Amino acid sequence: MFICLGLSKKYSKHHTIIDPFQSSQWNNIGFENLKKTGVNYFELIEDYSELALPKLLKDGKKFDLGFIDGWHTLDHTLIDFFYINKMLSVNGIIIFDDVTYPSINKLMGYISQYPSYEVIGTVEMSYPRRELEKILTFPLKLLSLILPFSVTSRILPGHIAQKNRQFKLNTSMIALKKIKEDERSYDWFKQF
Ligand SMILES: C[S@@+](CC[C@H](N)C(=O)[O-])C[C@H]1O[C@@H](n2cnc3c(N)ncnc32)[C@H](O)[C@@H]1O
Fold first, then answer.
1. Closest C-alpha to ligand 1, atom 3
2. How many CB atoms neighbour CB 138 within 10 A?
3. Closest ligand 1 atom, CA of 70?
4. Which of 6, 44, 49, 154 has the least CB density, counted as fewest CB within 10 Å?
């Protein structure tokens, strides 16, 4: 709803939503709320993103904004990112929610190495978690210096164990801007 309202003053606008369970599990609450606001420039694809996104790519779709907040495993989130990256225009924005999840946090360590993206915004974690982090960060950081990365990457939160960090990873949401075409070679890899 906020994305649609943010678009409201634009001349050309369209919002594509993917949710396999909007009617079966959510009783169409999001869909009905959007209709109540009078928004008519959206489409709901009631399918899994891993199936819907490749179809959108095949249909030649392009997007200016991607918001990833679906199934939160590392593999699903990477698949969402993989396809959105291919369809996102240069200067487009991609937002990841729930970056504090270990799965997504880990993935952000990888995506943070992409040369075609830069961070343009983050949203702070909720208050108690932020405070707990402040207390624990120093001892955990010490541990990460003493122990080898092969160990710390398994036992410590992603943003503490991470090396070569470009992102501020201890946030709940991250917005990245695509600053140029993704021109990585077929064997591109950076440690994360
Ligand atoms: C954390 S909720 C977020 C919903 C919405 N972004 C919001 O903030 O209200 C996660 C959503 O992902 C949907 N979901 C679950 N599996 C999915 C999949 N494989 N592909 C796309 N969406 C999925 C769920 O039905 C749910 O609506």
1. 69
2. 9
3. 12
4. 154
